[in-house]
Write a structure and sequence with these properties.
- About 50% of the residues lie in helices and about 0% in strands.
- The chain is mostly helical.
- The N and C termini lie far apart (about 55 Å).
Length: about 130
């Protein structure tokens, strides 16, 4: 009986850990997934994107998008996404726009702090991290 209880406990702990560790997927509406960035990427747009990124994103996601920003020490049980991994780089501009504008749970929404043009410039800037 002790062996059976031990096996059951091990299975339950394993299931619980796998549930906790798995990333929570975003539910991005289809109209955003297919949305293209309407802002033409220019040096000015990239400079604006970088400025806005540093103001509202770098604190959590880090200066180079690695998910290692200075604010993470204050984030209990939250690991900001790395913007250089395939999970991020394989997503569309529209998905990134949606996530920045609307946020989710503890992922802040910045639609009230940045207008759409600024968010699109941030999307352009964030895409540069995958090239480094």
């Amino acid at each position: 009986m002790k062996i059976l209880n031990s096996i059951i406990a091990t299975v339950l702990v394993t299931m619980l850990c796998s549930f906790i560790i798995q990333p929570i997927l975003w539910d991005v509406p289809a109209e955003f997934i297919s949305k293209r960035n309407p802002i033409i990427k220019t040096e000015k747009v990239m400079a604006e994107g970088k400025m806005h990124y540093k103001q509202v994103c770098a604190g959590c996601h880090g200066e180079k998008g690695k998910g290692d920003g200075a604010k993470i020490k204050n984030l209990a049980n939250i690991k900001p996404a790395s913007l250089i991994l395939n999970d991020f780089t394989s997503e569309t501009d529209g998905e990134h726009f949606y996530k920045v504008k609307y946020g989710r749970n503890r992922n802040h929404s910045f639609g009230g702090k940045l207008d759409d043009e600024a968010i699109w410039s941030v999307v352009h800037y964030m895409k540069t991290f995958s090239n480094k």
